[in-house]
Amino acid sequence: MNQKTSGKIKTILTHTLLLLFAFIQIFPIFWLFGFSLKDNSEIFGGNIAGLPQHWRFENYANAFFNANIIQYFFNSVLVTGATIIITLAAAATAAYAISRMIWRGRETMLKIILLGMMVPIHAALLPLFIILSKAHLLNSYWSLIIPYVAFGLPMAIYLFTSFFASLPREMEEAAAIDGCGIYSMFLRIIFPLIRPALATVSIFTFISSWNELMFAVTFINKAEYKTLTVGIMSMVGAYTTKWGEIGAGLMIATVPTVLVYLLLSEQVQNSLVAGAVKG
Fold first, then answer.
1. Helix %, strand %, coil % of the chain (to 5)
2. Judging by beta carbons within 10 Å of its beta carbon (0-12, 13-18, 19+), is residue 5 exposed, middle or buried?
3. For 117-137, what is each residue's pLDDT tens digit?
4. pTM over 0.85
5. How far is the C-alpha of 228 from the C-alpha of 68, rounded, in Å?
């Protein structure tokens, strides 16, 4: 067997494994889509994995209007969007101060912040409930935004600090010589350069906030503030449950996650490549 034939075989095997891996990753989405178009009789009648015999798109209409998914979707977008914006602003400025400014105790401060990554979310559930209750913040958007930002900051600051380490200081020194202030330097010079890190932090923050259930089901009781995860859970009835409509709700909740990753995946790859080159 010559080298050319051996190379072709390796290429075919590599592509086959990649296609198999892609199928394993994509199949759950297609299965969920088919599941969302069935009714209970078809799901429990032995056709749980196959294509729907009758494509019941009315499941989506019922989920949107009868199950109030539109309101839950809006609440999730509002909470997640506010969490991302606040986390990006706070983490980027804090990481810039820690990695670029010279002040006593900055390394100790970074270590203290990173200790937050070791705190399990569930361990803070009761203390957070007591604090939010005394602050009269339960049953409000802030009862979710504040904990989401607090638990998202350690990872975000760590990612930004690592990315700042790969940026040369010469541009900032030149800007300082030209009379550029610290705020203008950050907004005009540094901020455009950290777009890959912004995308990476945005994806991590989006996934953790969009899919979070424990805080949302504990801190929110009023229907007008419930997020999508809690709203879908409330679709389970005491006596009967329309699983096709729940599948439609899950599909609605899954699509934004896929879209966000597809839109920002290139920036995430650039961020990882930048870190690899620095190392």
1. 75, 0, 25
2. exposed
3. 888 888 889 999 999 999 999
4. no
5. 10
